[in-house]
Design brief:
mainly alpha
Length: 100
């Protein structure tokens, strides 16, 4: 289900010429905590400290999107070649094994 949601979000963005950038969970954790194997609790706590949040959400899954956004901010201008897509055809060309 997550893959379908991801694909739908990517298709929506690409149909409007919004560039798409992907980050692996390890890269996001590394950017936030300095440890690619950090737990959700560690990531959430570091986000709380970094962003000055008063409290953590009860469901730590909700911090995943925020962590990805902060990771993207930290990596602005440093995206990896082959991980940024300018349109649907570019995504398909770089991910032939993922598209049926």
């Amino acid at each position: 289900k997550l893959g379908r949601a991801q694909g739908g979000a990517m298709a929506a963005g690409l149909s409007r010429q919004v560039p798409i950038t992907e980050y692996s969970p390890k890269k996001i954790k590394m950017a936030i905590t300095g440890n690619g194997n950090a737990s959700k609790e560690q990531v959430a706590k570091m986000l709380q400290q970094t962003l000055g949040l008063n409290e953590l959400p009860k469901n730590l899954d909700s911090t995943d999107g925020l962590a990805a956004a902060v990771c993207h901010f930290y990596n602005s201008g440093k995206t990896e070649i082959g991980k940024s897509y300018s349109g649907w055809s570019a995504f398909v060309k770089q991910n032939e094994g993922r598209v049926k």
